[in-house]
Design a protein that fits this description.
CATH topology of the largest domain: Dihydrodipicolinate Reductase, domain 2
Protein name: Gfo/Idh/MocA family oxidoreductase
Number of strands: 19
Order of helices and strands: EHEEHEHEHEHEHEEEEEEEEEEEHHE
Mean pLDDT: 97
Radius of gyration: 21 Å
Organism: Propioniciclava soli
CATH class of the largest domain: Alpha Beta
Largest sheet: 11 strands, mixed
CATH architecture of the largest domain: 2-Layer Sandwich
Structural class: alpha/beta
Length: about 350
């Protein structure tokens, strides 16, 4: 099973490393202008498909360029996994859906629900320990990613939503960015966006994100899932155990490689008591959670493209996440409630 990679930027290298570790072969890289890459390079998607016979494409390009790559893949009859968000604004999102929504060839590269911690939390919530989930609070990642995590933990399908958002600005030191350690020693103004997303039927999301929070380690990542019979706060669980009984417990991560554990440095399992919620498919790799999630998504896409697995993250899901993200931005800028009432992917 082989695929083509379109683009050679920051995320492209993550896909390449995932391919090397999972055995899903990258057959070539498509770029606008020739440049050194670790795989054969092409300047045309059509030529690359003809030369390699790739079974699917990973469109690792920005939101402005992604729709054209997606359309070209659908026209060629090849599956495509496109980065998030799948388009740069609501109108382009709807136009993309109008062109390719009827196809079953388009998936979205939303890796966050596949993080070991999130996958374990969702498995625990699905067990019913906190009853029916009613609210997910996300303070870790931005816009469409946060929307995906909210819907994932609540089990909410694409549909109507109302977003109310505000912003505040306060000083914050930014010691680390995507480019690495900044050397900064003084705080600078940073904007925090708060939003409440009404997902109907008594379910809601709470969004809390500060500029650069994804990489600023001075901000703690938080995910809370509230249910009818308890609450999950990160790894901590509080739940109803019967009349006059409240139970507390934790999700525990088994991390190999500490102290005299010489079995290699890797996350092995996440478990709740005797119940294993997540097990590492690649325990021999010293991978971060993001690398594990990216690898899992790539492997799932390969199975789907080969007709052996379900859709990893269909376009309708990615469109909904993006639409909620755009609504958060619009609501924060205008101060008014933004309602999603009739989107074509529902």
């Amino acid at each position: 099973m082989g695929f083509l990679l379109v683009g050679w930027g920051y995320r492209s290298r993550a896909w390449w490393e995932a391919a090397r570790g999972t055995g899903v072969e990258c057959l070539g890289v498509v770029v606008r202008t020739p440049r050194p890459t670790p795989a054969p390079t092409f300047t045309s998607l059509e030529d690359a498909l003809a030369a390699t016979g790739a079974r699917f494409v990973v469109a690792s390009v920005d939101a402005a360029a992604a729709p054209d790559v997606v359309r070209a893949c659908v026209a060629a009859g090849v599956g495509v996994l496109t980065e998030t968000p799948p388009a740069a604004d609501p109108d382009r999102l709807r136009a993309l859906w109008a062109d390719v929504g009827a196809s079953d060839l388009v998936q979205v590269a939303e890796q966050y629900p596949r993080y070991p911690s999130h996958a374990a939390r969702r498995a625990l919530v699905a067990s019913g320990i906190i009853g029916t989930p009613t609210q997910a609070q996300v303070s870790s990642t931005q816009l469409h990613h946060a929307a995906a995590l909210m819907r994932f933990h609540l089990g909410v399908a694409p549909g109507p939503a109302t977003v109310r958002a505000t912003t505040t600005t306060a000083p914050l030191l930014q010691p680390l960015t995507r480019a690495g350690w900044t050397g900064a020693t003084e705080p600078e103004p940073a904007t925090t966006t708060h939003a409440v997303i009404d997902l109907k039927d008594g379910r809601s999301g709470v969004y809390d994100f500060t500029d650069n929070q994804t990489r600023n380690l001075l901000r703690v990542r938080r995910l809370v899932v509230r249910g009818t019979h308890g609450e999950l706060d990160g790894e901590d669980v509080v739940a109803w155990g019967g009349p006059e009984t409240v139970l507390t417990s934790r999700i525990e991560r088994r991390q190999a490689g500490h102290d005299l554990d010489m079995s290699g440095f890797a996350t092995r399992t996440l478990a709740h008591g005797a119940d294993v919620l997540w097990r590492n498919p690649w325990p021999g790799k010293a991978w971060s959670d993001d690398q594990l999630a990216t690898a899992d998504l790539l492997a799932a896409t390969a199975r789907w493209a080969d007709g052996e697995g379900k859709e990893p993250y269909p376009l309708r899901e990615g469109c909904q996440d993006a639409a909620i993200g755009f609504a958060i931005e619009r609501g924060a800028a205008g101060g008014e409630a933004v309602r999603l009432t009739d989107e074509p992917w529902w």
